[in-house]
Design a protein that fits this description.
By secondary structure, this protein is an all-alpha fold. It has 14 helices and no strands. The protein has a domain of about 60 residues.
Length: about 230
C-alpha cells in the first residue's frame, strides 16, 4: 500500500466540503500517530459537528502524549455534549489512569446522560479498581443505558465485591441489561456468579442465554487453566 500523501491530506482537511474533510480524516488510519495528530488538530474546531466528532474519536486511536490533555480539555469545557461524550470515550481508549479523576467528576457533574454514559464506559476501559464506588452508584440510575454501562464496567475492572450489587438485575425487564450482566459475571469468579449464570443460561432471550454460556465457559477455563 502506498503511503498516504500527508500534504494532500492536509489540503483536503481545508476543503469547504465537509465530506472531503471526513474522507481526509478517514485516510489517516494508514498514517502513524505522530504524523496524524497534527493533522487531526486542524479540525478539532471544525464548523461541522460530524467532522469534530470524528477528529475527537481519532485522538483516542492515534495516541501520542499530546492526546490526553486535548481530550481532557474537550471533556471539561466543550459546550457540545456530543463532543464531551466523544472525548470521554476517547479517554477510555487511551487506557490512561490519569483520566480517572476527570471521568469520575464528569460522571457526577455533567447534566447529559450520554456524557455520563461515556464516562462510565471509559472508567471500565481504563480498568482502574478505584472506579468501583462511582460505578456502583451508577447502578441506581433511572437510565437503563447507564445501568448497562456500569454493569459492564464493573466486570471490566473485575470488581468481585460488586457481585451482590449487580445480581439484582438478573430479572431486569430489559434484555440488554441482562446480557450485560451475563457478560460481566464472566469476569467475576464467585459461586454466586456461577449460580446466576446457570439461571441466565435459561433466559428466554437467546443473546442473554448465549452470553451466559460463554461466561460460564470463561469462568471454568480460568479456574482450570491448562
Amino acid at each position: 500500500m502506498n503511503h498516504p500523501n500527508l500534504a494532500q491530506i492536509s489540503t483536503q482537511l481545508e476543503s469547504p466540503n465537509s465530506r472531503d474533510r471526513m474522507l481526509a480524516l478517514a485516510s489517516l488510519r494508514h498514517v502513524s500517530a505522530e504524523e496524524a495528530v497534527p493533522l487531526i488538530k486542524k479540525v478539532l474546531d471544525d464548523p461541522s459537528l460530524q467532522v469534530r466528532s470524528m477528529a475527537v474519536f481519532a485522538l483516542g486511536i492515534k495516541q501520542t502524549p499530546e492526546c490526553y490533555p486535548i481530550l481532557v480539555r474537550l471533556l471539561e469545557t466543550d459546550p457540545d455534549y456530543g463532543i464531551r461524550a466523544d472525548a470521554a470515550g476517547a479517554l477510555g481508549y487511551l487506557e490512561d489512569a490519569r483520566a480517572f479523576e476527570t471521568l469520575v467528576r464528569t460522571f457526577y457533574e455533567d447534566t447529559q446522560w450520554l456524557v455520563r454514559f461515556s464516562a462510565a464506559v471509559a472508567l471500565g476501559n481504563i480498568k482502574d479498581p478505584r472506579a468501583r464506588e462511582v460505578l456502583t452508584q451508577a447502578l441506581n440510575s433511572d437510565e437503563a443505558v447507564l445501568q448497562q454501562a456500569a454493569i459492564s464496567a464493573l466486570g471490566e475492572i473485575k470488581a468481585v465485591e460488586s457481585v451482590d450489587d449487580i445480581l439484582r438485575f438478573a430479572q431486569s425487564p430489559d434484555w440488554l441489561v441482562r446480557q450485560r450482566l451475563a457478560e460481566a459475571l464472566g469476569y467475576l469468579p464467585t459461586d454466586k456468579s456461577i449460580s446466576a449464570l446457570k439461571y441466565l443460561e435459561k433466559d428466554n432471550n437467546s443473546q442473554v442465554a448465549e452470553a451466559a454460556s460463554i461466561s460460564l465457559q470463561r469462568l471454568q477455563e480460568s479456574s482450570n487453566p491448562v
